[in-house]
Amino acid sequence: MKLIKSIVRPNKVDDIKDALAKLNISGMTVTEVRGHGRQKGHTAIYRGKEYTVSLLPKMEIEIVVPDDIVDEVIKAVMGAARTGEIGDGRVFVIPVDYGYNIRTGEKDIV
Amino acid sequence: MKNPKSEIHGSESSDKLKRESDSTRPAGPLSQTRDSEPERRQRLEQILDQARKELSDDIRQKKEGKQALARYSERIDELIRRIYSSAQVQIRTPIAVLALGGYGRQQLCPYSDVDLLVLFDGNIGRAEEKFLKSFLHPLWDLRLDLGHHVREIEDFQHLERDNPEFVLALLDARLVAGDTALFDRFHQLFHVSNPHWYRQILDLLLHLIDQRHARFNNTFYQLEPDVKEAPGALRDLAAGRWIQFLAFANMEAAADARSIVTLRNEDRVEQAEDFLLRIRAILHQENRRNQNVLSHDLQEKAAEILGYPGIAAHQRVETFMSDYFRHARVVSRFLDSARKAARPKRKEAKPVPLGQNLESFHDQIRFRDLEKAASQPTSWLPAFRVAVEENCPVSEEALLLIQQNLDRYSADDFFPTKVEREMLLDFLRPRPGIYARLSEMHDCGLLGQMFPEFQPIYCRVIRDFYHKYTVDEHTLLTIRNLERLCEPTNPSRERFSSILKELESPQLLVMALLFHDVGKWKEENHAEESVRMAQKAFQRLRLPLPSTQKVEFLIKNHLQLSLVAFRRDTEDPDVVRKFATLIGTEENLKMLCLMTLVDIEAVSPDTLTPWKEELLWQLYVDTYNQLTLAYGDEVIEKDSSLAEILAGRPNDLTETEISTFLEGFPRRYLKLVDRESIYQHVRLSRNIHPHQVHLSLEKKDAIWELSVVTLDKPYLLSNIFGVLAYFGMDILRGQAMTSLSGLVLDIFQFTDHEKFFKLNPGGIAQFGDLLQDVVAGRVDLSSLLRGKESSLLYRKMRKRVPTFISFDNQHSPRYTIMEIITQDALGLLYRISRVISRHGCDIHLVLISTEGNKAIDVFHITGKDGKLSESSEAHLKADLEQMLEGAHEINQEHRPS
Fold first, then answer.
1. At B742, is the secondary structure helix, strand, or coil?
2. pLDDT over 90 at A90, yes or no
3. What's the rounded Cα separation, in Å, for the pair B282 and B299?
4. Edge-to-edge strands, sheet with B146-152
């Protein structure tokens, strides 16, 4: 199993959810986050005064998927999140040993 | 508890209890020996099961919850008496078994703790311990959750202040079995011999209430409420009655206060108690344990058991939970009222008259003449307005009067004349206290009577995991959140607070908030339904058309800003451009931004995260910049909005005339003025010659609006500014626009502080003549202004605003945009525009706004070769700074050549 952690633009979450639904993936954790990568924020001017937005609002989507569909899922996420501009985000893939279903107590091993 | 309504601890009650106690006492230990231990236990279990089944049937058959629980408590009484009798061992010490707390009140639920006090009239020795064992063990064997306390009567010489829950439970003590005389002695010690204990118990109680409420964030709006512990639930109800009892039991002087609390609430409180007890009994039966949380699953179950109507489960639950919150609100307000009435009063306080038939007494607003107030519904809103101004509540007495007389009047009776309608708008200005007063109006029913549109959302529940509050409370909370922006405690809110302070008509924002969700009874398109419903209210209030349009715009679009901020790519300039087109003006944007902020924050305490706040702010700034910096490039085109203007034209105007006039004007012009004003401007532009100025001057409330149409020429704008300054007019807002054909249209709003127009009958003509003369070059304006500036009258000392000048060559492909923020002063725009003209720059568009003593002006300018170079900008900036910082006198200004 792999944990796929994606940092994406806030407005792309719905598109990503739709793309994942096509792969029959409906379980995910979505978190509001703030940060910056190479984009490093930007400077805005409001009424003549500059103010810097150093930590940009982003969304973090976490999904755990079986190894055999990892590539497919990454492709779907990246396809839906991409605009081609700086600030599109990042995708991280992290190995997961196993998980438990709290309600049933079942162990997930894929 | 010694119930204030029915005293049960008097001698008469004791006699009755004694009889009951005696009659239930079995013949003696011998009679109990006939059954074996297992048989006796089995019989007791049967009695308990039977009692629980009986209660379950009562609840399902929709019998009153209170009666059903009283019957169940009596069954448990019987059970305890049986066990008590069988446990009688040969001891001489008199014993009394007392029911405490909820059981004492006869409100025992199936799996509630059975709180008992076993009281001995003497020392507890080996024989007494033996009795306790034989009495308590059978109860434990029945798996009853027993909360037992064992005391000697002498223990009640002192109040157990370190055990407040026990002390409070004693207030409801009731004799179940045992010695009546001993119970009477307990009563004497606890209630009679130590009168000062009541005050101490009251303090303990108030402290416990605060602690408990804090665990629930001090709100009865819980998605999954605890029907026992949550604010507005059963414990609050008991607390309200305890407070009444403890505060007023021995104070005849406080009888009035008590009766008011009781009168206003008692019927509704009784209903709420009954409802909550039924729910709690259902929860116990469904969970088979002492579980009082009304979870989402159990809400469905309870709604079904209680027979709530609705095809889908969510409909049944929404109706059921609406009832829950309606009752919880009653209980919550009942407790508040009891606390308010029990507050120590200053004896020396005297009423302070506050306007017609109103006075302040003990920091509350009340009517002087109740009879008169009852017959004058127009005097009710002033009570709440005065309460906001005095920063205190409206008295319970006044609220009771309003509540009792509401039905005599219709919505129109509250606003029969312009005076009352204007008072409402004044009342709605966002400021500290407005939420609390609106809540009082809502609780006593006045808000719903004034605005019947509000009634469909009364206690309405939206069942999801997102909305924490009922729709009406959510609505009021939006206003509370706006009120908090008046004095923000969070630094990140200061930016939004500054927007609020800039609003021209903040009361219209409160009006929009009040109505933004009234259409939420409809599952789809609630914003449109809200607009439809609000229109009726605005017609009744005869709200002026521009105000109506503004409020309707806000209600209709109240979800748009969050939609774009959270779900669209706001880094795409096209998204921002389209959004700015929808919004139209900075005022609309500011209002919608604040509306969105307070609306999201009122969904639940956790909904408005710093993350969302930042996204809202970024969209606000981008849209603001689009509206103020890039609007010059958004010119009117041949589209639907132009077609509408052409189609609705009056007979005296041709299509060509209108199209030619509008060609090249910025699109925002169509958003700034209504259609009639556009036609008027077209007329003003007719047959105009180079040295002519056509103008119209109109007064709207306290503000004058000047529209000037002329042909472009050097120093034109500064001359207009100069004339306004000469007459002492304070420019609040302004738009200066130039069409492709060189036609200039300037619209200014200003105030006439010196009342020049009012004091001089020919003042308007004088103003027009001077403007013509100055534009035509017949009068030297500088010399006129020099004399004015040197007058002491204009040498006002004001707090200095630092000067910021910035240039932007990116937002517009055609213009250099210069933004100036500086200290407002007489003739400021005149001087700025002259410096710009002196540098050989043309002013194409100007956006003027004034916030207090701060002037914020945006100029769209070009030089000889189009946009300004960096060096040209630097020179212009240096000259402007020198003029703004160093020389405020007109006579230091360069004259035009």
1. coil
2. yes
3. 10
4. B146-152, B114-120, B95-99, B174-178
Q: Quote the ipTM score.
A: 0.78
Q: Tens digit of pLDDT for each residue in A44-59?
A: 777 767 777 777 889 9
B465 in contact with A, Cβ within 8 Å: no
Please say whether the dihedral angle defined by the alpha carbons of residues B752, B755, B758 and B761, taken in this order, is positive or negative.
Answer: negative
Mean pLDDT of B171-190: 93
Residue to mutate among A17, A33, A36, A47, with most B CBs inside 10 A, is A47
Asked if A10's CB is within 8 angstroms of B615's CB, the reply is: yes
Neighbour tally for B368: CB within 10 Å: 15
CA distances B302 to B96, B283, B321, Å, are: 38, 8, 10
Q: What is the pLDDT of residue B534?
A: 96
Among candidates B567, B611, B806 on the partner chain, residue whose Cβ is nearest the Cβ of A11: B567
Q: Say if CB B325 and CB B220 are below 8 A apart.
A: yes
What's the one-letter identity of residue A9? Answer: R
Query: Is the confidence at residue B97, as pLDDT, over 90?
Result: yes
Contact at CB, B622 and A49, closer than 8 angstroms: no
In a 3-state reduction of DSSP, which class is residue B638? coil
Q: Quick one: closest CA in A to B620, which residue?
A: A46
Task: List CB contacts (< 8 A) between B820 and chain A.
Answer: 48
How far is it, in rounded angstroms, from Cα B685 to Cα B694? 7
Instruction: Give the residue carrying structure tokens 């401007």.
Output: B681
Q: pTM here?
A: 0.77
**Is any Cβ of chain A less than 8 angstroms from the Cβ of B615?**
yes
Nearest residue to B178 via CA among B2, B24, B70, B1? B24
- CA angle B134–B136–B138, rounded 5-degree value: 75
Asked if B611's CB is within 8 angstroms of A87's CB, the reply is: no
Q: How many whole angstroms separate alpha carbon B881 and alpha carbon B865?
A: 24
| pLDDT at residue B439 is higher than 90 | yes
- Cβ atoms A40, A67 nearer than 8 A: no
For residues B559 and B595, what is the distance between their CA atoms, to the nearest angstrom? 9
Token pair belonging to B284: 């116990």
Does the structure show a pLDDT above 60 at B759?
yes
* Alpha-helical segments (H) within chain A: 13-21, 70-81
User: What is the distance between the alpha carbons of residues B359 and B347, in angstroms, rounded to a whole number?
Assistant: 17
B117 touches chain A (CB under 8 A): no
Contact A57 B615 (CB under 8 A): yes
pLDDT tens per residue, range B847-862: 888 777 788 889 989 9
Does B611 contact A33 at a Cβ distance shorter than 8 Å? yes
Using CA atoms, how far apart are residues B236 and B334, in angstroms rounded to an integer? 9
CB–CB contact B618 A32 (8 Å): no
pLDDT in tens, B252-276: 444 455 455 555 567 889 999 999 9
Taking CB atoms and an 8 Å limit, are B612 and A32 in contact across chains? Answer: yes
Residue with the larger pLDDT of the pair A16 and B639: A16
Report d(CA B325, CA B461) in Å as an integer. 8
Could you tell me if B877 lies within 8 Å of chain A, comparing CB atoms? no
pLDDT at B32: 45
Find out whether B457 and B472 touch, Cβ atoms under 8 Å.
yes
Helical segments of B288-415, H only: 296-305, 313-342, 370-374, 380-390, 396-405
Buried b (16+ CB within 10 A) or exposed e, B655-668: eebbebbbbbbbbb
